[in-house]
């Protein structure tokens, strides 16, 4: 229901702004730009889905091998005490626990291509025990919000863009991003826990969260001792070794149990193709709405209003130059990336705005894209409170990014 209102809002506001630009400003091209955007974004949505087909086919097959060989069950057992409290409605022996763990791990390593198939697999497994097939379950909402918070340990792609645009130290945003995304994830977790009445002061939850915090602190310390070239090399090598290591563990355990690994892969891979096709309408719907909103100039209106409001209150508005990235990120990953690059080109990669834009890019994830893809893959239309909680995580990440950027770069 929330997506319905948001979708209508994007089109309605876009139409009003475009009409104003036509009648008052004499802009005769605005509606042409909006219509062109609908075609372009429809094509983009299809191409994204098409691009996902191969990756989904691969990882759905790998996940099936892991299930047959028992690797997923082993992973589920490792985090079962923690997930049993975060996902109380999910059966303890559900294979979704393992899929959730692998998805979150892939996200933290910045391996988006691997994370999405694992996340879709987790959603399908949770949907199997969902009593209301058209409405999101508590477990699915918790999982989705943890995804939208964008917890990332190694933001390799952002560092690469900074290097390409001439940053003196491309890795100087590493710790700020890690801190901002941590606060974003924590805010999302707390928001969902309040809705679901989950006791976050449970000793097991505190122990796991404490362990994760210590791990992140260790990662921050280790990478802070490396030079910029070493950070990129180590993060790339470590991420891919871990990922390929998981594949080998899955295959090895299945082979040890005398499972026909090839047949298991083919069986799972078939699901990947079907899933990719299923998400096409959901993805195109949200991307077209975002494209129209942007092409109409509504995004520029929002930006101008925010800038005037901040300056009118007498606050420093330097951070507003980077705000387009933050506002675009929940809507479109590629759009936010474009905004980030544009900010660095306009103000400089080592400017305050340039660094903050990079921090925004790494602090959260594409909330509406994730909602469209993940819920669309299992046919859920009633997202309940998933969108508000996801946006709370986004807002926390944005606020944290601004504060942290002033501490590190101002």
TrEMBL record:
Residue ranges that the Swiss-Prot or TrEMBL entry lists as coiled coil: none
Keyword Transmembrane helix: yes
Transmembrane segments: 6-24, 45-62, 141-161, 173-194, 206-224, 230-251, 272-293, 385-409
Residue span, Nucleoside transporter/FeoB GTPase Gate domain: 51-158, 277-380
Keywords: Membrane, Transmembrane, Transmembrane helix
Gene Ontology CC: plasma membrane
Highest taxon, organism lineage: Bacteria
Signal peptide annotation: none
Protein known as: Nucleoside transporter/FeoB GTPase Gate domain-containing protein
Biological classification of the source: Bacteria, Pseudomonadati, Bacteroidota, Bacteroidia, Bacteroidales
């Amino acid at each position: 229901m929330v997506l319905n209102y948001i979708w209508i809002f994007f089109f309605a506001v876009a139409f009003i702004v475009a009409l104003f630009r036509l009648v008052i400003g004499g802009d005769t091209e605005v509606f042409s730009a909006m219509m062109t955007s609908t075609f372009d974004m429809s094509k983009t949505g299809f191409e994204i889905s098409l691009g996902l087909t191969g990756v989904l086919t691969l990882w759905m097959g790998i996940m099936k091998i892991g299930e047959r060989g028992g690797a997923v069950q082993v992973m589920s057992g490792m985090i079962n005490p923690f997930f049993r409290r975060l996902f109380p409605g999910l059966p303890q022996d559900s294979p979704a626990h393992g899929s959730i763990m692998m998805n979150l791990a892939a996200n933290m390593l910045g391996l988006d291509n691997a994370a999405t198939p694992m996340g879709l697999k987790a959603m399908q497994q949770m949907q199997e025990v969902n009593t209301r097939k058209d409405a999101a379950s508590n477990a699915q909402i918790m999982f989705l919000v943890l995804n939208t918070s964008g917890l990332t340990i190694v933001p390799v792609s952002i560092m690469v863009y900074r290097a390409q645009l001439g940053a003196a130290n491309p890795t100087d945003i590493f710790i700020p991003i890690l801190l901002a995304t941590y606060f974003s994830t924590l805010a999302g977790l707390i928001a969902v826990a309040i809705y679901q009445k989950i006791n976050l002061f449970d000793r097991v939850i505190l122990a796991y969260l404490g362990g994760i915090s210590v791990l992140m602190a260790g990662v921050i310390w280790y990478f802070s001792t490396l030079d910029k070239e070493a950070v990129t090399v180590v993060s790339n090598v470590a991420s891919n070794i871990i990922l390929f290591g998981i594949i080998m563990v899955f295959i090895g355990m299945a082979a040890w149990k005398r499972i026909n690994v090839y047949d298991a892969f083919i069986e799972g891979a078939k699901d990947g193709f079907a899933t990719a096709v299923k998400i096409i309408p959901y993805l195109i719907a949200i991307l077209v709405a975002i494209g129209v909103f942007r092409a109409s100039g509504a995004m520029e209106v929002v930006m101008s209003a925010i800038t005037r409001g901040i300056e009118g209150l007498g606050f420093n508005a330097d951070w507003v130059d980077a705000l387009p990235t933050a506002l675009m990120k929940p809507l479109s990953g590629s759009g936010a990336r474009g905004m980030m690059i544009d900010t660095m080109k306009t103000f400089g990669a080592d400017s305050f705005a340039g660094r903050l834009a990079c921090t925004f890019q790494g602090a959260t994830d594409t909330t509406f894209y994730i909602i469209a893809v993940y819920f669309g893959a299992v046919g859920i239309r009633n997202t309940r409170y998933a969108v508000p909680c996801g946006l709370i995580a986004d807002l926390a990440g944005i606020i944290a990014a601004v504060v942290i950027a002033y501490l590190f770069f101002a």
